[in-house]
């Protein structure tokens, strides 16, 4: 029987900490990370590994959601599992699955739908219908028994390394973990109480739901819908999905309506997931369609109003330079692929004034760069140093 190697545990740790080095949870773990990782390695291979406490809190952007943040030690285990399973899943996922995949993120999904609309409508010269649909309380609807059976078969058939038994053991632990029974609730508890029953792990039912916030939840949710993706794309060629939102294109409206009925029946009977009947969109292409924070209309891409509101709300609460540059450049990076020059300019003007003491705008509001200061001379008589600011452009 194979084991998880100590080297792979360290590799997973380094991968995990890349985006978590500013968190208190990671900092505590890192104080004695070598001994902590050796202990984790032994617990895993001796089948003594137990999942720790999560932190539960609510977020309000882009909408009210319940989030569970796993303990850093458990995040390392998530990476151990995903380093082995994700490459195999990537081999079978369809091209038009855009959720949480390297090289197939938000921008890829938007551009892909934009290209398909243009192709199906033959460069906007023929009729083309768009159907966009949403799954109701998707993450909380996932049936853990169904998910585990699918994962078990997949791992047994496609994963052939010596540590297969350990991977099965860890995967089962993660799938059937119930963080709502072992968590610390932080933040505004009143917000959590406002969530509908089908939006919370506390009320969705036994063996139902995956915690939003874990890497494994995102990948497992993708895998849960994989067979649905295949069935839809085989039956309706022009199909794509981002998390629980999916679209279908056709030159015939009746095909879109049929696709809705097929999807509704398949999801309910095979996966215990329901379509959200309040979020059904079936329109000709020239009306435009909202998808992943954008509005696609003919040959133009706009930022959706909700995304704009979220961007400007975030800009009001920037508190430090590093965070401000990351946030602003992230938004500029996405927006510059859309028709958004005026919005980028408005965002720059809406930023706090203190930011402009340290950054400047590059190009036509493409991104912000930090001002570099150079020493140009030193006075021997006054022992003072004069500085000059490098080329800058302030709004």
SSE string, helix = H, strand = E?
Answer: HHHEEHHEHHHEHHHEEHEEEEEHHHEEEE
The low-pLDDT segments are 384-395
Mean pLDDT: 89
- Report the helical percentage: 40-55%
**What is the CA-based Rg, rounded?**
24 Å
Largest sheet: 5 strands, antiparallel
Determine the N-to-C terminus distance. Answer: 64 Å
Strand content: 15-25%
Structural class: alpha+beta
H/I helix tally: 15
How would you describe the shape?
globular
Number of DSSP E strands? 15
Question: Which secondary structure elements does this structure contain, and how are they paired or packed?
Answer:
Elements: H1 6-17, H2 24-30, H3 33-45, E1 54-59, E2 65-69, H4 72-92, H5 106-120, E3 129-136, H6 138-141, H7 144-158, H8 164-176, E4 183-185, H9 189-193, H10 215-224, H11 226-235, E5 239-242, E6 245-250, H12 253-271, E7 274-275, E8 281-284, E9 289-291, E10 294-297, E11 300-303, H13 305-315, H14 321-335, H15 341-350, E12 359-362, E13 367-370, E14 373-378, E15 385-389
Parallel strand pairs: 1-4
Antiparallel strand pairs: 1-2, 3-6, 3-7, 3-8, 5-6, 9-10, 10-11, 12-13, 14-15
Helix pairs in contact: 1-3, 1-4, 4-8, 4-10, 7-8
Which descriptors apply to this entry?
395 residues, 5-stranded antiparallel β-sheet, 3-stranded mixed β-sheet, 15 helices, 17% strand, disordered C terminus
Tell me what the structure shows.
- The chain has 395 residues and is an alpha+beta fold.
- The protein has 15 helices and 15 strands.
- Strands 3, 5, 6, 7 and 8 form a 5-stranded antiparallel β-sheet that branches. It has a 3-stranded mixed β-sheet with strand order 2-1-4. The protein has a 3-stranded antiparallel β-sheet with strand order 9-10-11.
- A hairpin with a 6-residue loop joins strand 14 and strand 15 (385-389).
- Helix 4 (72-92) packs across helix 8 (164-176) and helix 4 (72-92) runs parallel beside helix 10 (215-224).
- The chain is globular and about 65 Å long.
- The N and C termini lie far apart (64 Å).
């Amino acid at each position: 029987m194979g084991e998880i190697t100590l080297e792979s545990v360290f590799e997973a740790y380094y991968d995990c900490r890349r985006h978590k080095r500013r968190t208190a949870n990671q900092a505590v773990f890192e104080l004695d990370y070598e001994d902590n990782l050796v202990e984790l390695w032994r617990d895993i291979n001796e089948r003594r590994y137990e999942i720790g406490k999560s932190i539960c809190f609510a977020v309000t952007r882009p909408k009210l959601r319940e989030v569970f943040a796993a303990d850093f030690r458990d995040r390392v285990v998530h990476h151990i599992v995903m380093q082995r399973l994700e490459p195999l899943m990537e081999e079978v996922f369809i091209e038009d699955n855009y959720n949480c995949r390297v090289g197939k993120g938000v921008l890829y999904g938007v551009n892909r739908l934009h290209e398909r609309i243009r192709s199906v409508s033959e460069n906007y010269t023929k009729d083309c219908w768009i159907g966009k649909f949403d799954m109701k309380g998707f993450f909380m609807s996932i049936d853990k028994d169904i998910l585990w059976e699918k994962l078990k078969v997949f791992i047994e058939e496609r994963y052939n390394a010596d540590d297969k038994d350990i991977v099965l053991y860890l995967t089962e632990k993660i799938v059937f973990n119930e963080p709502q029974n072992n968590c610390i609730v932080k933040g505004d508890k009143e917000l959590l109480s406002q969530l509908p029953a089908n939006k919370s792990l506390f009320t969705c039912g036994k063996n139902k739901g995956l915690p939003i916030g874990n890497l494994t939840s995102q990948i497992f949710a993708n895998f849960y819908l994989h067979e649905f993706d295949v069935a839809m794309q085989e039956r309706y060629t022009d199909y794509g999905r981002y998390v629980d939102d999916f679209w279908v294109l056709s030159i015939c409206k009746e095909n879109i309506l049929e696709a809705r009925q097929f999807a509704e029946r398949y999801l309910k009977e095979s996966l215990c997931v329901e379509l959200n009947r309040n979020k059904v969109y079936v329109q000709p292409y020239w009306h435009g369609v909202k998808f992943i924070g954008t509005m696609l209309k003919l040959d133009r891409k706009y930022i959706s109003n909700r995304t704009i509101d979220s961007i400007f709300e975030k800009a009001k609460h920037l508190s430090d330079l590093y965070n401000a540059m990351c946030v602003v450049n992230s938004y500029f990076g996405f927006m510059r692929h859309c028709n958004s020059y005026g919005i980028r300019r408005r965002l720059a003007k809406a930023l706090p004034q203190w930011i402009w003491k340290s950054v400047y705008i590059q190009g036509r509001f493409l991104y912000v760069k930090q001002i570099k200061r150079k020493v140009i001379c030193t006075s021997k008589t006054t022992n003072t140093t004069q500085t000059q600011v490098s080329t800058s452009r302030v709004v």
